[in-house]
Amino acid sequence: MATVSVPKSSEETTTQPSTITLRIKRSNPSESTEKTFSEFQVPVQKWTTVLEAILYVKQNLDHSVGVRYSCRQASCGSCGMKINGKPALACYTKLSELGTSIVTVEPMNNFPIIRDLAVNFEQLISNHKKIKPFIVREDSEITPGTKEFIQKPEDLEKFLQFSYCIKCGLCNSACPTMATDTSFLGPQALAQAFRYTADNRDQGKDERLKIVDDSHGIWRCHFAGSCSHVCPKGVDPAMAIQLLRGYLLGFRK
Amino acid sequence: MRESIIMKIHYGTALGAVVLVAVHILMRLSQKYSDSLQYQNVLANYHFLPYALMLEVVLILLSVHGFNGLRVILLELKQGATYERAINYGSIAAMAALVAYGSRTILMAGMGVS
After folding, report:
1. Is B72 on the interface with A (CB under 8 A)?
2. For B23-80, how does the pLDDT look when each residue is reduced to its tens digit (9 = 90+)?
3. A217 to chain B: which residues are within 8 Å by CB?
4. Which chain A positions have a beta carbon within 8 Å of B2's beta carbon?
5. Is residue B84 less than 8 Å (CB to CB) from chain A?
6. What pLDDT, on a 0 to 100 scale, did the predictor assign at position A2?
7. What is the DSSP letter of A58?
């Protein structure tokens, strides 16, 4: 039987907030090409996230720091950034997990910078739209005389993992191909192409495969796997790309 | 041509080249290695029609695979419609030139012209 005891004394249970140095990369491409780092001393608790540290800076030290955030619970995909060199969600990364007293935050790679930590998602969203991220079919569930489209649990299993994408852009930021090929569709769009192609209710497979079968499409993935390594939702875009290739190589129907 | 067809050719040529180059290397073992590189023995390879044909196939497979690989690398390096068209046609031209020059060598050696 579990025993719950009362804390002995406040001195023993209260952890003194320690301090870390938060280095924020600053730039404003609309005004100059100069890039600098601003350093701030931030008090942290065991549970303090990188986003909370940045917001502490904004509230108390420098309100001009540019950062995009919204839900604070890894659902909206707004606060993606490079934390100690690795793409991650600021709201989902605890400072205590990083194990360093100096934490460096930079804007994500492979995206145009708007200001400081905020990057432009225009290409990510346009590539996402390009692959038709919806069920393509002539009829609909609300057409009179039709019934709902049946989907068995095993049909759902085929793509469920890939439907967890929150479009945070971390995979595109980590992708080595995206670093040189600006026309590459990117792991996010390709993973979503598989998600909809594998959906048994979808009839747009041929259309979608034609879009990804481009000189800057699916074949430019070299399976580095960085996208899957950084994905905060466990989507595994690298696997989705290999499975999508199966359709084009004739291994999958 | 669709990129998937090009990449199927790319993978196919790689597999074919691995098999045929393995045969080519194993042929060296049919005699003493140093003897296999003697002038007369090398010429004899070209005079033996099946082997000369295999060398021709190896040449084509490696040229197609190599230049397509180079095309892919160059396409990833830089983008732009004119640049990409130049790379695509340039790769085909270079591939054809190499196959033509290699075939000429195989043909001339086969006919005994040195």
Report:
1. yes
2. 999 888 888 888 888 888 888 989 999 999 999 999 999 999 999 999 999 999 999 9
3. 3
4. 213
5. yes
6. 57
7. I
Rounded to whole angstroms, the Cα distance separating A98 from A104 reads 11
Alpha carbon of B3: minimum distance to chain A alpha carbons (Å): 6
Cα separation, A113 vs A120, whole angstroms = 6
Range of A209's domain?
A: 122-136+151-249
A230: CATH: 1.10.1060.10
ipTM for the predicted complex comes to 0.83
Are the C-beta atoms of B52 and B106 separated by less than 8 Å?
Answer: yes
When the candidates are 3.20.170, 1.20.1300, 1.10.12, 1.20.1070, the CATH number that belongs to B3-110 is 1.20.1300
Optimal mutation site among A185, A214, A215, interface B, most CBs of chain B within 10 A: A215
Extract the tokens encoding A19.
């301090």
Q: What is the pTM of this model?
A: 0.87
Residues of A in contact with B76 (CB under 8 A): 177, 180-181, 184, 220
Instruction: For residue A221, give the nearest of A169, A172, A149 by alpha carbon.
Output: A172
Whether residues A190 and A168 share a domain: the answer is yes
All residue ranges of chain A with pLDDT < 50 are none
The two tokens of residue A188 are 């996010």
Answer whether B4 sits within 8 Å of A248, measured CB to CB. yes
Q: What interhelical angle do B81-110 and B39-47 show, nearest 10?
A: 100
Residues of B in contact with A177 (CB under 8 A): 76
Specify if A146 maps to a domain: no
Q: Are residues A131 and A173 in the same domain?
A: yes
* Same domain membership, residue A91 and residue A22: yes
Q: Where along chain B do its domains lie?
A: 3-110
